[in-house]
Amino acid sequence: MEHKDSSPQTMDTLVSLCKRRGFIFQSSEIYGGINGFWDYGPLGCELKRNIRDSWWRAMVRRREDVVGLDATIIMHPAIWKASGHADGFADPMVDCKACRHRFRADQLCEEHGLALLRTAGGFALPPEVKCTHCGSKDLTEPRAFNLMFKTYVGPVEEEGAAAYLRPETAQAIFAQFRNVLETSRQSVPFGVAQMGKSFRNEINPRNFTFRSREFEQMELEFFIRPDEAVELIRGRVASLADKPDLSQPQDDWGWEVWHKYWVEQRMAWYRAIGLPAASLVEYWQPKAELAHYARACVDIQYAFPFGVQELEGIAARGDFDLTQHHKHSGKPMEVFDEQLKLAAAGMDAAARAAFTQRVTDTWSRDGRDPEAARAFAALLLEGKYIPHVIEPSAGVDRLALALLCNAYAEEQVAGDKGKTETRTVLRFYPSVAPVMVAVFPLVKNKPELYKHARGIFDALQRRWCCFWDESGAIGRRYRRQDEIGTPFCVTVDFQTLEDGTMTLRDRDSMQQERLTLEALKERLDGLTA
Q1: Which are the contacts of 53, defined by CB distance < 8 A and separation ≥ 6?
Q2: Same structural domain, 477 and 371
Q3: Partners of 506 in the β-ladder
Q4: What is the widest separation between alpha-carbon atoms in the chain?
Q5: Chain center to CA of 336
Q6: Does residue 4 contact residue 412 with C-beta atoms inside 8 Å?
Q7: In a domain, 241, yes or no
Q8: Is residue 429 part of a domain?
Q9: pLDDT at site 206
Q10: In the predicted model, is pLDDT for residue 6 greater than 60?
Q11: Separation CA 87–CA 82 (nearest Å)
Q12: pLDDT (tens digit per residue) in 260-308
C-alpha cells in the first residue's frame, strides 16, 4: 500500500484539528477569547502530562545527581530585584500612530528582513520599517516594556504590597539553593529540577501556542565546581579539546565539557520522544548575542511550519545568579567542598601564591577585577566557592506544539470499499501519545462479547490511558483514533471468546495481528518503559 505523507503547510490545518479533537482551545472563547492564553482539552492535557512525565523520568528519576523542587508562583519581590528582572526584563515596543497597533520592535524588523538597531540610549528602527497592519511609517521610537505581570499581596493595592507572577521557574531554585543542599544529602556537582507555570506579558503573542502569556517550563539548574576548584582538586581541567567521553560525568570536567554534556543529553531526549534529528538544530549563540552573565548558550530549535524556532536553551550561567542572591539577601551561598579543602591543605606557601597569581592573571586578561580574583582564590584555598551552573530550560507548550506538527500527516489509503481516501493521522511516539490504546467491541448488542471487551478495557486502563469506542463501523473507529494519534486499536470479537486472542491494529502500518491480553501488556510495557 502506498502512503503519501504531507505536513501542514500552514498552522490553520493543525489549529482546526486541535480544536475539533480536543487538544487545544482558545481561553475564554465564549466571551471572545483572550489573546495569548490557551486551554488544553482532554487530549491536550494528556499530551502535556506525558511530556512532563517523560522529562521528569529522564532528568530526575533516572539520575542520582538531580532532585526536585516545586516552588510558589508568587515570591518575594526582592528576588526579582536581585535577578535583574525588576529593572531589565523588558522587550522594545513600538506603536503605530496611525492605526494604534502595537508591535515588538525586533519582530517588526524581522518581518521586513531587517535587524533592530542598537543605539547608545537603547534601540532604533531602520528607516525602511513600516506598520505591517496599515503601512504607515509614523511609528513611535522603541521603548522598554517590562514583561512581568504585577499583582498585590494582601487587602490593599499599594506599592509596598506589590508582587509579580514569576516570569521563569529558575529563580526559586537559586533562592532555595541552601535549603535543598542541606536537606537532600547532595554535593556539587548536582542539579535541582522544577516544572511549573510562568507568565510573561508578551507584547505580541503569536504562532498559536508558541508565544503565549501563560506557559509551562521544565528547567534544571545543574551546579558545578568552578574550573579553578577542579584544577586544585585534579591538577587539570578537561576541556572539549581533550575530546572527552560524554557518556558518563567525570570529576575533572570544566564548565565547557559540562555544558556540552547537557546539550548532548537534551538532544538525545528530544529524539527519544519522537522529534527526528533532521528537524532539530543546535544554534550556538555568538558572543554578541549572549546575556552579559553567560559564557555560552545553545538553543535547541525545531523547524515549525512558521520557521525554525527555539524549543530549549542550554546556558552556562557562571555563578551570576547565586552571587546576586548572596549579595542582595545577605545569606551565604558558598559551599564547603571537602576535596577542595584537602587539596588546598597539601599546598605549600609558594604553590598557594602561584595559584593565586594564575587566577588573577586569567581574570585580568578577561577584563575582570584583579582584587575580586584574589578574594576568589583566597576563598577557594579555604575549601569554599559559590557554584557555577548549567541551565537547560525547555517549554512544555512549545514542545507539545512541535510534537503535534511533527506527528501530523495526511496520506492516501484504500478505503473499506476499495476507493482511495485521505487518512489524517498523528504519528506520536507511544511514550507521549495522549491515548495509548483504544478498545472496540466488534458489536455492542451481544452481552457476553460486550462484557468481555469491557473487562479487557478495565485491565488495560489500570496501566495506560485508554479509549472506549463502541459506535460505528470498525473502519470509522480506526480513523477517529488515527486522527488523535492512538498507536494501537484492539478489537474484541467472537474468536476472543473462544481462544482469548484479540485483533491488535497498528496505527502507522495499519497491519493487524492477534494477541492475548498478557502478550499485549508485554508489548505496551516495552514501548513505554
Answers
A1: none
A2: no
A3: 488
A4: 91
A5: 32
A6: yes
A7: yes
A8: no
A9: 84
A10: no
A11: 9
A12: 999 999 999 999 999 999 999 999 999 888 888 899 999 999 999 999 9
DSSP 458-496: HHHHTTS-EEE--SS-HHHHHHHHHHHT-SEEEEE-HHH
In this model, does residue 172 exceed pLDDT 70? yes
What CATH number corresponds to the domain at position 196?
A: 3.30.930.10
Residue 445 burial (C-beta neighbours within 10 Å; 0-12, 13-18, 19+): exposed
Domain count across the chain: 4
Tell me whether residue 342 is in a domain.
yes
Mean pLDDT of 474-479: 94
Q: pLDDT band at 88, cuts 50/70/90?
A: low
Are the beta carbons of 302 and 407 closer than 8 angstroms? no
Residue labelled with grid coordinates 503547510: 9
Average pLDDT, the chain: 92
Query: Could you tell me if 184 and 114 lie in one domain?
Result: no
Question: Considering the domain boundaries, does residue 234 fall inside one?
Answer: yes
The whole-angstrom separation of Cα 432 and Cα 23 is 13
Distance CA 311, CA 398 (A): 6
Percent of the chain's residues with pLDDT above 70: 97
Integer Cα distance of 441 and 469 in angstroms: 8
b vs e for 210-227, b when ≥16 Cβ sit within 10 Å of the residue's Cβ? bbbbbbbbbbbbbbbbbb
Same domain, yes or no: 4 and 138: no
Distance CA 76, CA 328 (A): 12
Residue type, 458: D
Q: Find out whether 186 and 64 touch, Cβ atoms under 8 Å.
A: no
Identify whether residues 140 and 201 lie together within a single domain: no
Residue found under cell 463501523: 473
Q: How far apart are CA 492 and CA 452, in angstroms?
A: 8
Report whether 452 contacts 470 (CB < 8 A): no
Instruction: Verify that 277 and 187 share a domain, yes or no.
Output: yes
Question: How far apart are the C-alpha atoms of 94 and 131, rounded to whole Å?
Answer: 10
pLDDT of residue 118: 78
Q: Do 322 and 343 belong to one domain?
A: no
Per-residue pLDDT tens over the stretch 421-462: 889 999 999 999 999 999 999 999 999 999 999 999 999 999
Say yes or no to pLDDT of 403 above 80: yes
**Strand 488-492 relative to strand 437-441: parallel, antiparallel, unpaired?**
parallel
State the cell numbers at 372.
575580586
Q: Same structural domain for residues 107 and 140?
A: yes
**Residue 93 binned pLDDT confidence (cut-offs 50, 70, 90):** confident
CATH classification at residue 457: 3.40.50.800
pLDDT bracket for residue 89 (50, 70, 90): low
Pair 131, 214 in one domain: no
Q: Which range of residues forms the domain containing residue 520?
A: 435-528
* Model pTM score: 0.88
